[in-house]
Amino acid sequence: MTAIVALLAACTADRDDPLIFGTRLPPAAEQGTAADAASAQAPAQTPLPPMSMNEIAVSYVKLVLALGELDDGYVDAYYGPPEWRDQAKAQKLTAAQIEAQSQLLIARLINTEPDNLPADPELAKLRKSYLRNQIGALSARAAMLQGRKFSFDDEARALYDVEPPHYPETYFQPALKQLDALLPKGPGTLAQRYNRYVDSYAVPKDKLQSVMRAAIGYAQLHVRPHLELPQGEHFELALVGDKPWSAYNWYQGNYYSRIEVNADLPVSILRVIQLASHEGYPGHHVYNSLLEKDLVRGQGWPEYQVYPLYSPQSFIAEGSADFGVELTFPDAQRLNFERELFDLAGFDAAQVDTYDRVVRAAKALHPAEIEAARRYLDGHMDAESTANWLQIYTLATPEYARRRIAFFDHYRSYIINYSYGEELVRRYVEAKGGSEAGSDAQWRAYIRLLTTPRVATELQ
Fold this sequence. Notes:
The chain is mainly α. It has helices spanning 2-10, 18-21, 28-41, 53-68, 82-91, 95-110, 121-145, 152-160, 173-182, 190-199, 205-223, 269-280, 284-297, 312-328, 331-345, 352-363, 368-377, 383-393, 398-411, 419-433, 440-450, 456-459, and strands at residues 75-78, 234-240, 247-253, 256-262, 306-308. The chain folds into 2 domains: 2-149, no CATH class; 169-459, no CATH class. It has 22 helices and 5 strands. The strands form 2 sheets. The protein has a 3-stranded mixed beta sheet, with helices on one face. A two-stranded antiparallel sheet has the order 1-5. The protein is globular. 44% of the residues are buried.
C-alpha cells in the first residue's frame, strides 16, 4: 500500500505542482521514498477495497459524464448505458468532488493488476497506461474548472500527455520563401497573394455537397482493402455555419457518425480531400468505429464508450486523422484525384500540379498555429498582435485569424493535437511500417495504433 499512501499524501501537497493534476506520476522508486516519509508522519491508512480494471473503467466513465455536466463540449461522444448519463445529471458533482474522486481512482489503479490476457499481455499493460493518463487529464480539467491556471506547455502536458515543441520565426522562413516563388506575382502581402490564389479554387457552395460526397466516397473506397470496417458503418454529411471549426465528426455509436462541414468558410479542393479523410476515412469515423468494434464490443472495455475531448485520446485521434490523409492519398493518387475534383468543381484540371505544390508548401506553416496559441494564451501577445502574427506566419486572412483566436479562446492548447499529433503518428507508423507512403506495412502499423490503447508519450 505504500504507493497509495504516497499518492494520497501528494493530493494535499503544493497545488502549483503540475504533476499532481497532470497525466504523469512520479516513478515507482520516488513513490516508495515519499511513502516512507508519509507513513512515518501520518496515521495508518485504511486499505482501499480492491477494484477490477472494468470497475475502475466504469467509475472513470461516470466521472467524465459528471464533468460533462459542468463543462459544455467536454463529452465529445458517449454511447454507453443511458442510466449512467442520467445518474450524472442527478448527482450534480462539483468540480472539486470530481477532482478528488479521480485522484483516488488513480490511487486504486496503481495497485490494480492488468486483466489477464495471455494472448496479448502487452494490450493489458497498454490499457492500464491509457486509463491512468485519461484519468489524470480528467483531474487536470476539473482543476481548471475551479480556476487553476496552467501555462500553455503545462496544460498540454496535463491534458494531452505531450511535450509541446517550440518554433522560432526562422523555422517558417523556408516555406514562406518557397511560396513566394510559387505564387503568381501581384500586389499585396504574401498572405494576400496566397489567399487570392487558394480562394480561386474554393468549391462553389452549390457544388460543395456533391464534391464532399465524392471525396468521402473515394476515401472510403481506398480504405476498405486495408482494414475490416464494421458491417453497417455509415455517416451523415451536413453543411452548417457559425462555428469556430471548419468541420466536425460527431460519433453517435453503432458505427454511425454525423459529419458537419462549416460552409461559412471557403473550402478548397485540398481541404475537401483533407476533410474526407480526417473526418471520415480513415480518420475520426473509422477510428471511433474500430474502437467500438474491437475494444468496447470485442474486449468488453467500458472506458471507450465515452470520449472526453480534453484528454490524451484526442492527441491520437487528431494526429491519426491528419496522417490518414497522406496514407490514403499518396502523391500520385492524390494528384489524380485532385484532377477529378477539379473537373467536378468546374476548375481547369491542367492547373493541378501547380496548385498541389502551393498547398503542400503551405502545410509546413501549420505548426505556426501552435506557437501563436502559446504566445497568446501565455499573455505574450494580445489578440491584435496574434492576428497579425497569424497573417504573417500562417498566411491567414484577417477574418480567419480572428476565427483562429476564437478557437484558441475556446479550445486553448487543443491546437497541439493537429500538426504535432500528425508528426508523432507519422514517426510511429514509419518506425513500425517503413517509409513507403501507403504501403501495406504502413497500413498495418496505422491500424494497430487505432485499435489498441495508446498515449502520446509512447509515440514520443
